[in-house]
Write a structure and sequence with these properties.
Length: about 350
């Protein structure tokens, strides 16, 4: 049976999620709440959602709602995740989070109320991610040495009105908005082992105080490393590479596939099949094409499985732990930037 969701906030990102879910059998949206009732009604009408409310509390009180999708700004997530958990609603929440401590509070609230917690990191559910994991990362013959990521999203056309440039609502700036993905990708590749230390640099905007770009080095045990660069000011790009002694794995659009993302990267035509490039020690490469996939639908497919019963909810607690670990690293990166020092995580 599809999971019945209510939406807390009629934020722009919710348009994308709802739009894709119209094609899915794993979830349905039964109501939406916003601070402005007219805005909620307009959102509901546009997206064929049965009910609209003028408060978030009404969504949590709706007896038909099994789970809530929470795309509110970062600064408000702790409050509404805990309120949702206390209302016995499963949680799907946008990321990042203000701190690892806040994620732990959310995790504890969900566990104590017997509800599910997952953040909306979509690329983890893509078939391309699963392929790399099964073919390489879980292979006995593959030992990962390093991961390099670059992710930038040019947002200066909306400067300074875009919410990304409001540190009161989005306190981590580019580190949270973009660095969440690069950090999560690194931890995923290293099977969620935490680095032993982090060294980072970044630039804060003089006018708004927004953290605009970040470069970081993560040091892991046994001389293994990872790097990432994220930016609001650079041309839009998103690529990752995973390196071993004998194999290079590289792919573009690792967060949102450029050729299969009509909401963020509109195209006249789309290619639902993504690719990865695999190289060897002699510089030879081959292109592997992955089966067609929409990662949003895959995420909700997983969510439906996770909330099937009490036992599946307990097994799915790994998602919250992955969110905690990602936030631990982001906390360390931010501390490194502010103190201009290498930060130990041991």
């Amino acid at each position: 049976m599809p999971v019945r969701f209510g939406i807390i906030s009629a934020a722009g990102i919710a348009e994308k999620v709802v739009g894709v879910m119209k094609q899915s059998k794993h979830a349905e949206f039964v109501c939406v709440g916003a601070r402005d009732l007219e805005k909620a009604k307009a959102f509901a009408l546009k997206n064929n959602i049965p009910r609209a409310y003028g408060t978030y509390e009404e969504v949590l009180s709706d007896k038909d709602v099994q789970a809530v999708y929470i795309p509110v700004p970062t600064a408000l997530r702790l409050e509404w995740v805990i309120k949702a958990a206390n209302a016995k609603k499963h949680v799907l929440v946008e990321k990042p989070f203000a701190s690892a401590d806040q994620v732990k509070q959310m995790q504890e609230a969900c566990i104590s109320n017997g509800v599910h917690f997952m953040d909306n990191t979509m690329h983890l559910h893509h078939l391309r991610t699963k392929y790399v994991e099964e073919k390489f990362l879980n292979s006995n013959g593959f030992e990962l040495h390093r991961v390099n990521n670059a992710l930038s999203y040019y947002t200066m056309n909306d400067y300074p009105t875009n919410i990304r440039f409001n540190p009161k609502l989005e306190p981590l700036g580019a580190l949270g908005d973009l660095g969440w993905y690069t950090t999560r990708n690194i931890l995923w590749a290293f099977k969620y082992q935490l680095p032993v230390s982090v060294t980072a640099s970044g630039h804060f905007d003089d006018q708004t105080g927004t953290l605009m770009d970040v470069s970081a080095i993560l040091n892991f045990p046994n001389n293994k490393t990872a790097t990432f660069n994220v930016s609001f000011k650079d041309v839009t790009r998103q690529h990752t590479e995973l390196v071993s002694a004998g194999t290079l794995i590289r792919y573009e659009g690792f967060v949102l596939p450029f050729e299969n993302e009509p909401y963020v990267f509109p195209r006249e035509s789309y290619n639902p099949r993504q690719t990865i490039t695999v190289g060897d020690v002699n510089g030879n490469t081959q292109t592997v094409t992955i089966d067609a996939c929409d990662q949003v639908i895959k995420l909700f497919e997983q969510y439906e499985k996770d909330v099937a019963n009490e036992e599946s909810i307990k097994k799915a607690q790994k998602w919250a732990e992955e969110s905690v670990r990602t936030s631990i690293v982001l906390d360390a990166v931010l501390k490194s930037i502010k103190t201009n020092t290498t930060v130990s995580l041991q």
